[in-house]
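Backbone shapes recur. Consider a single case.
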Amino acid sequence: GYPDIYTANLQAGGLEALLRLFERAGELDATISFHDNVQASYKSSPRWSPALPGRDLNGELLKGGVWSSGQVYLMGQARYSRTIEKRLDETLAMYPLRKSLYWDAMTTYLGRCDYTPAEPAGLEQELDGKKRMIEAARNRGLEIVSETFCPYMLDHLSHTLRVHTEPEPLFGDRGEERVPFMTAAFHGRATWGSKPDHFSNRNMETRTDILGLLLDGAGFTPSITPLRRLEHAVSGIYLVDFPRQMLRELVLDDYCRKGERERLTFMSDKGERQDTYIEVDHGRCRYRIVVDGRLIAKDFSTFVPSFGCEGHWLGYAWEAGECRYPRPSEWPENSTIRAVALIGEGPGQPVSCRIDGDDMVWGAPAATPVRFSTAE
């Protein structure tokens, strides 16, 4: 249990198996990270110390929830931040972590003080302690991801897994209307996720949910509950995350709603306007996403540049059939294009495709990514 993060699970193969996983992930350009916690401590932990937790008004150890390792005792964040550099250095010396680290519950327990007699800390001091720990991680090349979006941690956390939303109207039948507040207030400054059950099937309810995710700027979060099939994760990545990745640095310029149609128009953080927007037709359950004048997603399909792989493009469609998107400008009209399906084991069967004037056309297999490149 926390704060011990140095004992690899022997039932899963121990440290040797874990290091092999890091090595294999590197070969695939994937990032392996940990679900860590710099607030929780357990009496069952080899690194337990009664000096770690904060104290409540009665002088008792501060308690959190009860999990698989037993009762959680919450460490005072202001005090623990003074030792976080040592913990990070020991972690990086043992594990080849890169890019990111998940610290659970960094946006929870914000209303608690530490009444330790020798070193009491108020709300602001505890919050500053969290921020110091995040900065220490950033100084070591690690962006910190946490659980629930919170404006108090804006510009500190690189991503949060989810946003708390109210599913029912707050004011009954008074004509309340939903607006994309998160996109208006925070797009371009933060990213946040959503629940994975949005992608468990392709019925109308699921499609309607995805329209809401696109308007709310939410990404796909596969780790809140286990997914039953790889297909569900792939759907979330291609239908939501890839378009969001191309919009993430932009801020909202304009929002309008006319009947069943909503449109979000984006601009750069310097105020430069561009032909970039999300347009949703709720009545027909259809949408279009345009970036810099180029159509990149429509009606549960996507066609985007392959991130980190210049010259390659990626296509995806929930339903099998012909897909038509604008031809990439770097591909001449007489180009020969190769397309291959991407499956769990790697590249699969070739996919029929052609350039038709200014359009790229392919026969999309259902719910299967396709990689495109010019033939050499």
Notes: The mean pLDDT is 88.
